[in-house]
Amino acid sequence: MPPKPFNFPAKRTTAIFLLTTTAASSAFTANSDDSSPHAADKFRAQIHGIVRTARAVSAVASTVVDYEFSLRGLPKHSDQYRKTSSQVHLRSAERFLKLCEANKGFYVKAGQFIASQKVLPTEYSSTLSSLQDQVAPLPFKVIEKVLKDNLGPDFSKKFLSIDERPIGAASIAQVHHAVLKSGQEVAIKVQYPWIEQQMHFDTRTMYFLSKTIAWIYPQYRFEWLPLTFAKTVSSELDFVQEGRNSERAAENFRNNKIVRIPHIFWEMTTRQVLTMQYYTGHKIDDLDFLSEIGVNPEKVAKSLMELFAEMIFVHGYIHGDPHPGNILVSPGGRNGFSLVLLDHAVYRELDEEFRKDFCQLWEALALKDSKKTMWLGERFGAGKYSRYLPIIFTGTTIESKYSSGMSIKEKEIMKQELKSLMFEDLSLFMESMPPDFIAILRVDALLRSTIRKMDVSRLIRLLTYTKYAVYGHFHPKLDSELCKRPKTNFYFAVKAAFLSFISTLKYFHILIKILIGANNSTPWQQKVKNLLHNYLYRKIGSSDLWSILVHSVFLLFCICPAT
């Protein structure tokens, strides 16, 4: 019997053309302003935006047809359906990769944003992860006009020199090296003059396209993606807020001897211009540079994980874009290197109750406490998907005995469980989780990618997260200004010292349980045991233990310095 002719449903056809036409026209009218002296430039930008929108519509329409036609008639839980779905995912990801490369700008940032979403199909994340946010720099005449508009017509008098050749150019801004009258080297981040208009145009198009897909396929609940992305890029356009974020992060790590955060020069900072202290360095995953300066990549990776573990579990204030280009390694300083943290445009402040619950979740994951993991998953809203939290964060199943790895049998069980999950399960899971959880997932995915490139053990992440989760669970959130006042801070300091001591004991207890869990005869598990043994007795040896205990007693001076 010949196959039935394929009739593309009318709902699919009308949805794509009606909603995307609405997206383009509304974006056009929203940005029209014929009375502006720059009306001609705006008109050209709008035409360019419509061309970009047309490419996006074409890519989405082709993808919808591909999914509809390729999966038609296949039983949802069959091996053929899964195999075909993977093929369609890959074709669609490659289609969107071409779209992002053609449209550049915010489409590249959107592709990178999607690639960092850990729970999306791997075909999308692996394909789109190749995107690079690099563009050809604008002529300095254009940049000079932005500087004059923001810093005044005589802005050049504030500098000894400004290098007209940018040291970096991305989709939103480019950066120039300069020297102040005082001799201080600075980096000037200058926003492109047309970028805000383009952002509104592109994000509006992305939102309407996502609405189109949600209408066609109600089971795919990914409308949160463009909304989250739009909020993220919108915050990136406010350089004043970026400066405030930078200062708050610097305050949080004021006692850290390894982390460097550029100082902000407020008298030369506006919404479109950010002037900051200039640092040199190389990307954190540049292994050739680390070898050249004689620094062990494992030490660098550990410092990176400690930095972000403290952000997540203790401060609850997280840098939202920790890709290697935003974290430089600079020679000198403690242990022979320092970490320079750049680009503070996007931060996430965690709800305090969520932060405490997430600390407990990580403790439960480390201890393989399945009951507590399921209970906390229910609190987060994961429901039946709570059993997959260990897979997401530790790469083990809810039934795994050890957090350091899985047996061959457990791997087979996990493989079968994951086979039963459908694409709509992923979208339902992501929609049900709180925004704080999604933010941590994204940051954690970027960090894991970096340490994987550095070729260091994933146990560094596991142990570091566990250490700070335990501390963050017990550590009281102290107001830094209150702590700086003499006499009034004594109670808080004593309480913090006691809780720090208790958390140290609990951390050692968890480490020992992980160590015992890795105590068996297989070569791979013996290797895990040796690594953990080294971590416990070499990294946290007797001298360091005394240091920790002394730190607990004298936390008054470490956390709450008197003025």
TrEMBL record:
<feature type="domain" description="ABC1 atypical kinase-like">
    <location>
        <begin position="131"/>
        <end position="373"/>
    </location>
</feature>
<dbReference type="InterPro" id="IPR051130">
    <property type="entry name" value="Mito_struct-func_regulator"/>
</dbReference>
<protein>
    <recommendedName>
        <fullName>ABC1 atypical kinase-like domain-containing protein</fullName>
    </recommendedName>
</protein>
<dbReference type="InterPro" id="IPR045307">
    <property type="entry name" value="ADCK1_dom"/>
</dbReference>
<feature type="signal peptide">
    <location>
        <begin position="1"/>
        <end position="27"/>
    </location>
</feature>
<keyword id="KW-0732">Signal</keyword>
<dbReference type="InterPro" id="IPR011009">
    <property type="entry name" value="Kinase-like_dom_sf"/>
</dbReference>
<dbReference type="InterPro" id="IPR004147">
    <property type="entry name" value="ABC1_dom"/>
</dbReference>
<comment type="similarity">
    <text>Belongs to the protein kinase superfamily. ADCK protein kinase family.</text>
</comment>
<dbReference type="Pfam" id="PF03109">
    <property type="entry name" value="ABC1"/>
</dbReference>
